[in-house]
User: Fold this.
Amino acid sequence: MNLFKTSMKPASVLTVAFLVAVNISQADTITNYMAGHADLSVSYQDSDWNVHYRFGGDTILNGAIYTNYPVAPETIRVIVPNNANTRIVLNSNQVNGAYAFLGATAGQTNWYISQSTVAGEPFFGLGSDELHYDQFTPPITFRLSSFSGPGNFSSWQNDSFGNPIVDWTTANGLGDDDVISFGIPTHAHYNWGFTAPGEYVLGVTVTGTNITDGVLTSTKNIVFEVAPFAVPSLMIQQNAPSNIVLSLSTVPSQLYQLQSATNVMGPWSNAGAQFTGSGLTNQIIRTNAQDQEFFRIKTQD
Assistant:
């Protein structure tokens, strides 16, 4: 149970850090792309074919806005949150019809992030925006060349009637049809779908033909963490004789409820209203705190 305690002492500062249970290793080197606009992009300069992440002005990395680029793909993990917007359960007509490409099971929960902008989620695409049309012979291709994960993966777009147009899918293995072609310069956004929670690693090979240097190619991994569960971390600081400030790290779209008790065994009661995480740090001010008081955070999708 996620418990933390404060004891009211003059100028006391207590910091409590919880482990993050999202199956993330290499915590010091991996950056979580949590929300906002980003593309896997390619640039060309001095004969250098560079595949990288390109971020927009609203990109949230590790809970903070980040607008610099390029960033190497191997340092980024795309977070697919676990909430009502990202979860979808398909019926038998869907899994045997228009959405058969997902490799899903009727009644099974699947996760996806949308081709359209959704607050608190990655708005992730692919693109050739940084290339010059007079230097290359189109198309620029993005091929799904390798895959690992706990379930099936697919990317697709929905047309104006809502019908899916499949781009990549692993349900039938990888082949020549797992290629997305671009003109120069352009980019596009997709639905990214997964049939199970966990870590997915997509090997993406980007190829183009330069009018001077010929065929250029580079393979990079896109890493997705699907439906992670994050245990919050908290700092507690006394800012007045009977007041404390609780600073809580949050995950976008996750619902939180602070509860308090004067004894670790309870009874517990809600301390304030439930709130929705933004990916940033929320501050909660507790006035008239007890001499001894325990807190816990309850989360809800």
Q: What stands out?
A: The chain has two domains: 3-21+230-300, 31-226. The first helix runs from residue 92 to 95. The chain has a mean pLDDT of 83.
